[in-house]
Amino acid sequence: MQLRDGRHFAVAVVGGGQAGLATSWHLVRAGVDHVVLEADRVGSEWRSRRWDSFCLVTPNWQCNLPGFPYGGSEPDGFMVRGDIVGYLQDYARSYDVPLAEGVRVTQLDPGFRLTTSAGTITADQIVVATGPYQQPWIPALAERLPVHQLHSSQYKNAAQLPDGDVVVVGTGQSGCQIAEDLHLAGRQVHLVTGTAPRVARVYRGLDVVAWLDRMGYYRRGIDEFDDADAIRFRVNHYVTGRDGGRNIDLRKFALEGMRLYGRLVDADPATLRFADDLRTNLDHADAVSEGIKDSIDAFILAQGIDAPDEPRYRPVWEPSDVPESLDLQGIGAIVWSTGFRREDSWIRLPVFDGRGYPTHHRGVTSVPGVYFIGLPWQHTWGSGRFGGVGDDAQYVVERIAEMQFHWLAGQPRRTVA
């Protein structure tokens, strides 16, 4: 749709990814006048910030946006980058979404006044659906290093990098998968580990995601956990859906020639320095994976499920004499898989805590009429993913409709003046 300067909407949704589109779907069904503002085009984040071999780590059957479940021929497969973009574009075409593409919101002011690249609009209520991956973060010590560097969001493939060894910093999902991509391309990889856990791809005849789904894990609300705040900021388990899905075992990579290190703690223009915690990091990742298997075993036993037995994981490599520094001579590039920070400076409303994180309950903030969608663990594990964002969108839209009903009933509108 064409956005006109000065227009007013009942609801403005900022962001046209899966979270914004799921919200719009529910708003359309509720008959609520709204607009979805997308800075680029639908699917652009998946297209521009993912490497060439990227694929989902959750099976396709978990792609279940409202009114648009996965309908392909490989429900147990893992969509690659292009298919993910296509899925979102097809979703946007599947219903009458009031989408304004190429419209960037630069400021949200009190009174719910939105300054955009297409002019200024206002709304009665605002949904922020900009996602968790906004500002790539690289540690300040990177400025000291005279080596070609890029963030994981800029990585595409091994041929993109200069000749020489490659250092990958970080062992979350992106770091491990990029390290594998480089390793399979024949590059010498130096992988700097962290505390991220891992999970097995398959256990006792089923994808672990399928077991956890049966166990109800993905439907548990965050308020059911004793350490809710810690869970919300926890790093995802590393695993891959590449080539049909498999484990990522850093110990196996080490056997094959990848060089592993502890956490990066310091650097100068010639040297990287690491903590002496590689063994601890590997043992922790394995312990989390085996703990998940323990819970699956208990579920199988309690439910009387006929599932094949499977031997437990045995470490194939143990670190010994791990160097605590690395000379940068011969290093062609460093890939920083160090995550993202939120960038919400455009929001001029009191909706954030002391860390700059949105203060909310299930996406409903303390400012009446302002909501968030698509935050990791907004309510459940699936809140920031294709599998659960629709439930959060439904909840938020129900609150939006309630607010509208109160206004129609004559109650005063409450906005930040």
TrEMBL record:
Keywords: Oxidoreductase
UniProt-listed Pfam families: Pyr_redox_3
Protein name: MSMEG_0569 family flavin-dependent oxidoreductase
Alphabetical list of SUPFAM superfamilies matching this protein: FAD/NAD(P)-binding domain (SSF51905), Nucleotide-binding domain (SSF51971)
GO molecular function terms noted in the UniProt entry: flavin adenine dinucleotide binding; monooxygenase activity
Signal peptide segment: none
Gene3D superfamilies according to UniProt: FAD/NAD(P)-binding domain (3.50.50.60)
Organism: Kribbella albertanoniae
